Structure formats: structure tokens, C-alpha cells
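Re: Re: C-alpha cell formats

Sure, here are both.
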Amino acid sequence: MNNWQTSSFNSTDGVKCFYRFHNSDSNNETVLLFLHRGHEHSGRIVEIADQISKQQYSCYAFDLRGHGRSAGPRGWAQGFDTWVDDLNSFTRHLRDIHGVDSKNIIVVANSVGSVMAVSWILRYGANIKACILGAPAFSIRLYIPFALSGLRLMRRFSDHLFVTSYVKSGLLTRDKHEANAYDEDALITKKIGVNVLVSLFDCVKNCFARLNDFETPVLVLTAEKDFIVNNRWHQRFFDGISSTHKRHITLPEFRHAIFHEAEREQVITHCREFIEQNKATPTRNLPAVIPTAREHTRTEYQQLIEPASLPKRIFWQCYRWLLEKFGSKSTGVATGLQYGFDSGVSLDYIYQNTAAGDNWLGKIFDRIYLGSVGWRGIRQRKRNLKKLLMLIASRLQQHGEPIRLLDIASGPGRYLFEFQQASPVGVKLTLNDTDPASIAKAKSIAQEFGSEQTRFLSLDVFEQHLFDNLTHRPNLIIISGLLELYENNALAHQLFARLYRELDEGGYLVYTGQPWHPQIELIGRLLNNRNRERWIMRRRVQTELDELVESAGFKKLHTTADEDGIFTVSCAIKDESIEITGESK
């Protein structure tokens, strides 16, 4: 414990989180990142971390917001995804302050911390070396009938309601000394926010809907006598993931707090063996060839292209008839039917998020339409884009550079004009889109904002003449909402390679992704695109998308995502000597 140091970092929203770290004197690049259980704090990890590390690895552990010495109301966050965002901020901090490459990180987590790790890997495409999931809280035993429904109802009344944990120390461990230490620890937080608990269940549901996307080497440790979580979910996770290096061990007689159990030397041994195995495994670096599509997403895409079965065809034809007959009373649906649901004109309406329709029924339909999970994610994507652009503007301002921004598939680009107006440094915009309606709308918005530093193009991004028509070399290129429309990775790689060549030295690439979508079949079978064809998308898991970007020579900096992990916004750089972060220093 005496060898550990303490510090703090600011998460993306400015909340200060406390952390502990111990730097190893060895030349081992592998780093252990420990995540504590819910209710606990990083101080309870130090002893087990020392025993696992044995001075061979640098170790880091932070207190969740609302826990231990971190700021925030005790046991509370805006949602479980906020803790996942904090983990993402922490790893960026480790990169910027401690020089930790995420490819060298092995996560060691327990309970709720294990769920955080899984969600972080899936949402942000975290390219880490491996992870150890101890008694992951994929399904918490609530015991009281209809407890979850009651919690959801409570959440509707307030976001600041709490429940107190029913868990006694004796249910966590058979080690009486450890049980007493838990009971006497003043930093233990026994309560938890209702919104955190409810959103934890929602997070797990989303994670299990996309287990095929999980590729990280993993060790799952299950406590046989776990009174806190349902163990059968551990096997479901293990069977569903795509990891080629995975292992599942059940610890006989163990209870939930496996790192504080009576025979924890078993856990230490299993952890050390797994770490040693993965320490010798080469990290997944820049691919020597164009990355291949993940097979399960390719299969999903092919199934959408092919005609559905007869019963399904009848179902979707009836659904489409209802959409055209009654749904068109909604302004949003009518716009999608006319211009294409993927069109810039349609998305501009989604961004404004104001329900309208032919009558009161149309307005109700429109509100339901605008409130769908996909459109909520799209609006969050816009907010994430604007936030990232402001960070880049601040960085370029420090270097005395104006912004020369090219959006290669801009749509109307309303958020770009909002950014141009708010930027601390001058912004020259070049908006390109092959959709005439989108460019017409963009010109109208430019007049609305009084933007004179804007040029409009309608050229194919896959043709060289787009770049031949540029009047200045861009130092910021945006590619948003485009790649999921193209299944071919070779084509995507060629585009990224061209962007790399045309981007100014030290310039930034901002790119969006769609790692998964819960309504991808509904979209592909029901909705039309701007070409009056079915709107079929081939999603790319974040790791595959990042590999495509890096295969062209870019260095990825970081990723943000909406709370459902549907849409991501990432940033990469051409010159590795310049860094940006999403946190205050």
C-alpha cells in the first residue's frame, strides 16, 4: 500500500474522480486496470492488486463517481452509462498523463465493474489486451417480485431516488475478517441510485443483444454460491461472444466478492496464469492488410438483402401500407417517404425534434416517430460531433491555425453552421453531398446563419475529382453516416487512404460508426432510402471500423457513443505528435 500513489482526473462532464496507481520498475509494458464492485472503492483493491501483480505490472484503479473519494452524490450517477463514460475518460487520462497505450491494458473487474468493462469494450471498441470478469453482475437477484418494474415506476417520478443494498457482508464472503472490514469501512456506499440500477439492467440487455461483437480475450470467474447474481448468465455470455481466447472457471463454494473470499489464492493463481498467457500474446496492432468484415455482420447484411420469407413479406408489406396510409400524417414520416429516411433533409428534421403533423393524430404519430431509439441516438451523435469539433477548434487555436473543414457527405449540415458560429477560431466550410435536396437545404441554412465562408459541392466521394475541386487543403475532414451504406471494406479502405493523402499534416479525421442497431431489420425491410430503394445497412463493430481507419495510416485518439451504443463518434489524427482529449486538464 505504501508504494501506491494517488491522483485525480476530470471526466468528460468535469466531475473529479480519485484514483490510485503503482508504477512497476520492470520493463513490462502490460498494465493492470482494476474496477471495483458497486458500493465499494479502489482502496479495497490495493491488496489483491499487489498479490496479482507482484511488482511485475503497473496497476491503476479509480473510485466510481459517488463512491470512495470521488466527487458526486453518494451512490448516484445520471445513469450506468455515466460510469462507463468515466472509465473511457480514465483510460484517455492514463494515455495522456501516464503514457499508457490501451493495447497494453488488462482489465481486472468484479461484479458491476465487470459489466462496465464489457459495455466499455462494446460501446467504444476498446482495443485492450484482455479482461478478467469476476462474478459479473449481468443479472442481479432482486428477490422481491416485480422489483424491477417498481424501480422503473419510481424512476418516472425522480432521478434522485435511492435504494439501500440488502446485501450483508456474510453474503459476500465467508472470510470473517474481510466481512468485518467491509462492515467497518466508512467509504463503503450502501445505497445506489434507482436510475443507475435500472439503467444497469438496460445496459446488460444491449450488451447481450450484440455478444457476437465481443472479441477481447477474456477470463470469466463464477462464484458457485453467489447470492447476488444469477450465474447462468455467465455461461450465456461465454457461449455468445466471438473471443477466440476465452476461459470460464467456476470457483467451488465461493461467494460474490471473489477477491475477498477465504480461498482467494485460487483467484490470484487463475488471474496470474491468464495474465501471463496474454502478456505473451501479440496485441492487435495496425493490420498489414485491409481488415475483413466480421462474419456475423456480413451474414446479417446478406440476410437483409435477400427476400424475406412469405409470411414476413406479407407482414412488412402490410406495415408499409399502414406507414404510407396513416403514418404519413406525421411530418417526419412524410419527409422520409418523400426524400428518403436516410436523406439529409430527413435527418435535419430529426435534429430539430419538434413534432408536427396534418392533425392532432399526426402530431402523436410524429412524437412517437421522433422518440424512437434510433433517432434519439442520432440526436446524441450530433451533440457528440459538436462537442468534439469544439475540442479540435480549441487545439487548432493553440497552434494558431484557422479551420479548413471538409464534410464529404454533409447533408444539410446544420450542426456545421452552428459550430462555425460558436468556434473560437475562423472556420472555412466545404460541404459535399450527392443529394441535390440536401445541398439546397444546406444553402438555405447557410443564408439563415449568414455564413459566407462556405463552399458547396455535389461530387462522388469515391472519385478523385472531389479533391481536385478543393480550393484549400483541409485540416479537418468529417465522414458521418456514410460507411454503413457500403458493405465493401476494400472500398472503405481506399476512401480512408485518399482522405489521409489529402488531409493536411497534423489534421484530424472525425468519423462516425454504427456498431449495432436494435431496429436494423425494421429499417432494412420497411424504410426507403433517398434512391427509393430499401435502406439496408452493413454495420461495423467499432474495432473493425477503427482497423479500417488505422490501415490507412491514421492514429485513433478516442471514441464517444450514445448511451445505447448505437452511434459512435471517433477522432483520428494524421500526425501522432498532436493529441487532444475530451477532459479538462
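Second one below.
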Amino acid sequence: MPPQRNKSRLHQTFSWRTFLTGLSVATIVFSLLVTFPNALSFLDLKISDLRMAARGARPPTNRVIVVAIDQKSIAELGHWPWPRNLMAQLQDALASYHPKVIGYDLLFSEADTDITERAEISSRLRQLGFRETQLNQTLGLDNDEKFAAAIKRQGNTFLGYAFAEVRMHRRIITPAPGYLNKAIDPPPMSYQLIFRAPHSSAEILHARAYLPPIPVLNSSARGTGFYDVDADADGEIRGELTVIRFHDRMCVPFFLAVAQAFEDDQPLRLNIDSVGIRTVNLGETVIPVDEMGNMLVTFRSAAGGFPHVSAVDVLRHRVAAVELAGKAVLVGATAQAIGDRAVTPAGAEFPRVEIHANAIDDVFGRDFVNRSKLLTLDIERLWAVALGVGISAAVAYLTAPVAFATVLALIGAYVGYAQYELVYEGILLGIVFPVAVGLGTSSVLAIYRYWTEGLEKRRLRHAFEHYLHPDVIAAVVDNPDGLKLGGERKIITILFADIVNYTGLSERTDPAALVALLNDYMTKMTDLILESGGVVDKIRGDGIMAFWGAPLEIPNHARAAIDSALAMLSELKILRERDPRFADIDIGIGIATGEAIAGNFGGARRFDYSVIGDTVNLASRLEGLTRQFKVHLLVSKESFSAAARQYVARDIGLVRVKGKTLPVPIMEVVAAAGDGADSSYYDRFAEVLDGLRSGATEAASKALEAMRAERPDDGVIALYLDKLTELAGTPAGELVFEFDTK
């Protein structure tokens, strides 16, 4: 199984170059966004809509209700617009429900359609000698006068008007037909209390002409306010304007005029400082606005979801008294055919009367959200700086995965903080500006690290890949401290492999041919070792030294080593069948598992990553003993047990190798279980060995003789029979083989 890198390292050597590059990138992104603030405004608006929706449903206060001129009302009462006498009946019907205040989100800038007919009749009657008193008695009031009279009787009704053009900077314009550049009496409602900061010259949204209700209706209403709203950069309406300057008046909007009347005419105060509108106050209530005077609206529902009743049901008294009594009633058109609709975050076909209704409900519920740059800009810029510096430091100091996680955590921290401020403090901080600085910095740094630091690592890897195992290279490149001299104790598995009778082979083979043969042999063998996660430590002549378990941990290094050795033997068999040069080539392999010191050994200027220790010596001795036992693969009993896998193998017993005092139990491994090798022969040997250890020497000798007859070339059987001959009939017990040479 391939090795896994050590994941415990979280940081690297701090790179000042990376850190300063990050600061430069953050500064550039910061400066660009400050210079071009509208570059990402569209995205910020859309994200803000999602965040506003994520706050959860905001139920209405049930103090505002819309009387809708809807499809049902038009179907029963006729097409829109209705004659003013019908509007007078509706006004009287509304008054009978005793609402606290009534507001019409309808323009009454033209006289009723029956006025022409009345003028013709009046002219004829005058020609016949009728006096004015007689004319009034004969014709009665016209429709507009009836509607005006009904408004006066109710006494707390507000009408609205529209401005011709609203701009930040003043300029002379020619009013459109019907628009007036001077206010008629009574003039539009305006702020009576205005507090302007000293030396303030802030420009206020300005209008040069307006379209008021016709005089008879204008004079009958409690007051008039403007309907105009200001769409954001994407064309959607998210707020209500709270002030527009018209001549020398700071005019009050329709929604705020209705809200003030409902709240018992608490004083309205406008606060202006050097950069624009600071706040609007209704009594003690502070209404947060941006510097343009725009109040952000919290939409309670999608179109048609605000509490409403049909106008025809009011007119015919089919509405329960409790529905309208004591409430702020807004009369407006919601029918699709009328077209008085706008695009909002709550829907693309949103009735404008419901925009005003939601704004009034925000005032009643004190459910405000402040998105003024006067409040939020400094916070956004401070976070942008913090993200730029923090991300630069993280990428310069932390490893790539940890740095990536840190970048996400830092950006997530700001997003979480911004959402907390929105939900619990009612402050709408911009998300895009700080996050853009953070993402821009991290993205450029990621590319920078890949092409600079990554380029340096690739150069080092390329320089050493012909000499070291890729994982050793990775460990050194990723951790330059790994180039220091020293080592650490680790439990590892070591393999030695040599070609049998290499000296004779070299004597009878041309040197050039021998080199070619060795290169082909080493390529095949070392590839198998590397594929199993092993490290090829040394190649000396015909010998290979490899180890598993350092510098990187693998799940079962003993099993990996034994499986690799068996693969090497299988590969050699294939080479013998396919390549005549390998016909007489045989190898011996020794494997041992135990504690060793793994690390860099050598001098300060030249060293090698290797392993040293008694386990290394044991593996080397076991490889040499393959000649004595005439087997291909010997492994220590500790390696065999640690592998924890079924093999076709036999327990050879104890050997006392050169350089060790205590005997070592060893195993011959022939093949992995299930690979087609017959295990019955080795099972019989195990039974013989059990008999020897129990003292049945004579029976064991006979069994061994029978096995030698079956396999005359079995070196293990031959050594056991020779040992029993030395004992001359003495009970054998546990035999110990001892060899003076490697």
C-alpha cells in the first residue's frame, strides 16, 4: 500500500517574500474597489437580498391594511379608473369602519370625466336665465366635489403626488404637461424641524416640478406626500426616499406622512451633516437612512401577501369591522391590468401600494435595517485590511492545505460577523468588498506560490529524483529541516536481495553485457519496491537494500516488504522465460522487522538518508543464509507475524547468525496463500518439526528421509538430516543452526 505523508505539520518557514506580495496584492485590490465602488455593486445588492431573506420571516404588525383595487373589484364595479362619485362612496364606506388614517396611493391629477358634460349643461342653463344658486340646485355637486366632500368628512386622509424629475444636482428643466414648478395651496407636507450640522453643504435630492392632485382634492386632504422612490443600480426598489427638496421645502414622503398621522402627529425631524442625510426622527424613533435619505424596506412577504381586502367588499360592507377599525388603510391598485407595479427583491411584479405598506409597517414595528455607508464603510474597510493582512500571513507561514482552511475560516468569520450584525443589530454591512479583497489576495498568492515556491520544489525534486525515493524527496522538499544530520528511532522492515553466484556470472559475461543485464534487472526490481511504498536505500553491484516504514508511515510495512519480495521472485521467473540472459540468474532475499535509526547520515556537506541498527544487520545475514538453506526468501519470525497474512511458508526454526548471541526464529516464505502453490509439503514439514521438538527424533528422521527422496534439492531437509546425524540418536528438541559466515 502506498505511503502516506505525515499530516501533523501545520506550518513552514515564514516567507517574507510571500507575505509582502500578499500585502501588495491586497493594497491593489483595495485601492481598485475604493476607486471604482460600483464595480461590484450589482453582486453586493443580490447577496444582500439573500442575507435579508436569511433573517427569517418578519410578520406584519397588523396595523396597516391595503384596500386593493384588484381584479375582483374591477369585475364587479367596472373598468378602472372609476368615476369620482364611486370613489366618494368608497371613501364614505371606509370612514364608516373608523380607520385611524387613510392614504390613497393613487394620482388624482386630472378632473373627473363628467366635467365636460356638466359644463355644456351649465352653459345652456345660463343662456336660459338660470342664476348660480339655481344652477347648483339643479346640477348638484360634480363627482370631484363629491369625492372631496367625502375626504373632508373623514378628516384624516392623505393623498400623494409625483415629481417630474429628481436629481442630485440642480438644473433648470421644462416641466412636462400638467407638472407645476411652483407649489399650489395648500403646499406639500414638509419637515418643520431640520437640524443641519455647522458648515454643512451636503446636496439633497432635488426636484423642479411636481404633479399635485387637482385643487379641489388637494385642499380637502389632511396632507399630501410624494410617491417617488429611488431604484438601486440593478433597477430594483429596496427602499423609500424620506426627503426630496422642492424649491425651499424639504418634502415629506407619502408613507411617512401616513405613519406620522397614525402615531398621533409626533414631530418629524430631519438631520443633515456634511455628507448627506444622517437620520430621520419620528418623535423619539430614529429612522436609519443612507446619505441620500433612502430607508431600506423589510418586505414582509411576496406580492399579494400583505394584509389586504378588496375595495368592492369595503364598498358593499362585506368586511368585518375589526379588519379596518383603528388601522392605517392604504388604497391602491393591485390588479395586473392597471400596471402600477415595480421590481423588488420580493418579486418582479410587486404592487407599489404594498411597497408603501411595508415601509409604514417597518416604522410601526421599529424593524429597521441600516445600510448607510456613513456607518458601515469604515467597518467594511477595516475588515478588508484585516483579511488582506491575515491571509497574506497565513499563506506565507502555513502549509497549503492549512492555509486554504485558514483563508476560508477568516472569510467565514467576516461573513458570520456581518450576518450577526444584520440579524441582531440591524446593520447591513457589505459582504463583497472585504471578501473580494480576501479572495483576490488568496487567489493571487496561490498562483504565486505555485509558480515560485512550487517551481523551486520541482527543481529540487528533479535534481534528486534519480537518486532518492520520491517520498524521501517530498519529505526533504516540504520540510527543509529534514536536510539536517540526525535520525529517529522507528520500527521498520528491511530487505536485502543479492544475485546468487554473481562473481561467477561476472567472470563469464562481457562487462558491457553484464551492465545491460544489471540495469534491466535493477529497473524491474526497484520499480516493484517503489510501487509497494518501499525506499531503495542502496544499489551496490548486484545487491539491493530497501526498507519500509520510513520516512513515511505505511499501514503494514512487514506485509508490504514480503509481498514485494514475492513479486520480485515472480518477476525474475518471467524474465527467465522471456529473456535468455536471465536463464541462470537466481536471487536470495532476506527480510527482518524491528527497531532501527532512520535519518540522514554522513558529513555536513555530503550525507544520505538511510537506516542503521541491528535489524539491518539481521536482514543482511538472512539474505546470506538463503545460500545455506538453498531457499529464495527468508524472513524473521517477527516480520512474518507482523505481516498478519496467510502465506505458503514453513518455520525453519532457530539460527544463530554471525554477530548475534541469541538465536533468531526464521521462516521461509514461498508464496501468498491462494497463488496456486501447494502447501501440503510444507504442512508435513511442520508436523515433522513438531515431532522433533517433542522428542520423537527417530520418527522425525524417517519422515525427513522420505521428504528428501521426494525433493532431493530441498536444502532445509538436508540441513536438518545433517544436524540429526551429528546428534547420533540423541533427542533433538529445538534445533539451533549456527553459521560462522554471512
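The chain has three domains: 16-56+373-464, 64-365, 480-645. The chain has a mean pLDDT of 86.
- S.
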